[in-house]
Design goal:
Two copies of one chain form a homodimer. The first copy, chain A, is built from six helices and no strands. By secondary structure, chain A is mainly alpha-helical. Chain A has a single domain, classed as Phosphate transport system protein phou homolog 2, domain 2 (Methane Monooxygenase Hydroxylase, Chain G, domain 1, Up-down Bundle), CATH 1.20.58. The interface between A and B is large, with 51 and 51 residues. Chains A, B: Keywords: Cytoplasm, Phosphate transport, Transport. Chains A, B: It is found in: Cytoplasm. Chains A, B: Plays a role in the regulation of phosphate uptake.
Amino acid sequence: MSEPHTVTAYDDELRWLSRRLSEMGGIAEGMVADALTALINADTALAQRVISEDLLLDQGEREIYEKAVLVIAKRQPMASDLREIIGSIRIASDLERVGDLGKNIAKRVISIHTMAQPKKLVRGLEHLSELALTQLKEVLDAFSSHSAEQANSIRERDEEIDAIYTSLFRELLTYMMEDPRNISACTHLLFCAKNIERIGDHATNIAETVFYVATGQQMTVERPKDDESASVVADPAE
Amino acid sequence: MSEPHTVTAYDDELRWLSRRLSEMGGIAEGMVADALTALINADTALAQRVISEDLLLDQGEREIYEKAVLVIAKRQPMASDLREIIGSIRIASDLERVGDLGKNIAKRVISIHTMAQPKKLVRGLEHLSELALTQLKEVLDAFSSHSAEQANSIRERDEEIDAIYTSLFRELLTYMMEDPRNISACTHLLFCAKNIERIGDHATNIAETVFYVATGQQMTVERPKDDESASVVADPAE
């Protein structure tokens, strides 16, 4: 009777990892969405709440890391389970970082909430964040369903986020050049945009992990993870 | 006779991981140092070389990931070896990201090399990068020597990098406000500074991994990994 019991306990451990990771995903998505809502409404109380939630993700990452190492040591899992458990560690680390980026946006909301902000560009940031959050949500679904195909298509769609980010970068720069009074707020918005673009990169990282967990192969074609904003040169009109 | 042979092969695998990680560390450090040299000398050829080297780190990370999973599956290592092997995966991921950040600086060098740059602030960036590279070098030494104590002191020193970064952020903002012609170059310098500050954070992440590998315990006191620049508010003088 001990064998089925052991297997059940092991299954429970794997399910625990998977459930804890889903919880982290939900928290991370919520933080980013709330940070953008706080930005749009200049809502510093909401921004403060986002900042405080970051601890939950730090804790989640630690717990998953410890549990994963314990499970591997105790159960000596077969290759596919092993990939999934190590994948959990990697994904937890990406989600923790997504939370950091959400928190950083929230901090900037508090810094700039009294300043005039270009409505059109803030809406652009909101759109960017919707795309990034869709990627994040879908890649976590792909992890649950072990879908290499879905992981592949998510990675390819990151280019759209990069393109929109680069165009926002250019517009924010132009806005700063038009009136130096915009510089302080727009610099923070630039970093908010960069943070959202990075959230898209983390979704891409997770997609790569999901692909490896599902297939045992790493995605071979290197996707350039960088956006093009590093190459944007804008001179003032004068 | 098969047992000693197996142990030796296993030791070889662990040594391979450790050596490959050292190589990655050397490449990452070199890329960041070269990116800064390229920035200071407006040397686009050097910047181009940094960009091309990034592939080496992508490849290193993949190889370490695959090898680590294989070694765990094959050898079913004891807890301390297991922590070290999983630690290798985490550290490889941090080093790959350091390379990305170095590459991103190099791309910006190419964008702004013809523009006037505030010499004092570029020197400030150089100083910041020297601190970050020292952290990176020392934390890789700490990994080799399994020194929890050294890992601890490295994590604490990250505050200095954050403080200098925040002060550079403020100065760059002021510079942009003084003359809109500085905006384009200074925005890229702002992101270069942010990249260097992030490299310091990756050294901190590695310190946390080293501590866990060495002790089996996670660092308990949460260090705020964020700099204070998100809270900088600077208005134009007018």
